[in-house]
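hey so u asked for the seq, here:
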Amino acid sequence: MEIFKQIAPLKSFLEEQRRERKTIGLVPTMGALHDGHVALIEASKAQNQLSVCSIYVNPTQFNNAVDLQKYPRTFESDSALLEEIGCDVIFCPDNEEMYDKPSKLTFDFGFLDKVMEGEFRPGHFSGVALVVAKLFNIVEPDQAYFGQKDWQQFAVIKQLTEELCFGLKLNSVPTLRESDGLAMSSRNLRLNEKQRPQATVFYKALFAAKSMFRGGESILNVKNSVRKIVETEPEVRLEYFEVTDSKNLTAIGNVQESDKPIMCIAGYVGEIRLIDNMFLD
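ran it, structure tokens below
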């Protein structure tokens, strides 16, 4: 496994691989890797001859300085895991390498980055788009892999890829969950022993909502029920629960309005913010 901290040597190495007609898959991460990330790497390995995993905690996508400071950083265990599962390349730049001067570029995705995560984390998706565009330009992958848990992020990156004509295929890999339903997330490492079981309430709310929709309940009634379910946990606060069309993220009045609706939820367990989603299919 090759490890690169600088852009130029990585690009030179990848150019050699392309000359050998190897296809390249990219898995962008912020580290603190778990089995969900492993699934992304495995998907890349199955479809490409070379897999690159980037590990970089990107400061421009954080609108909360405390969240940035406390985000788990576990490079030693991450690199050991990646070597064990057969990842070919790690790209782990520092801030000076990725932002050698203050960035002035911002992105606006219209409706896509104004709702849900965009409403509660202003500027977040502009920062995501900036770092992903940098990674796409640096690695020039044939395919890139993202987790379904960040579905709104995937929709934003899809628009970025189409509008900037990146010649690559995007792949969304289904969310992996713990045995109790909690969506795997790097932020789960910050949950203490008391908070960890409380965090499952978001999955329980999504599962209950799906059942209610199958029973013919209205979106309004389901939303009220979801809030009550979440509020059963004293340290948990619901930020939003929305039912949208999964293609354009527009809110729908009933589930029949969309070919593939998705439920999206976000909230806090103590000071730790978690998100999750579930398709209604």
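DSSP finds eleven helices and nine strands in the chain. The CA atoms of residues 188 and 196 lie 8 Å apart.
lmk if thats what u needed
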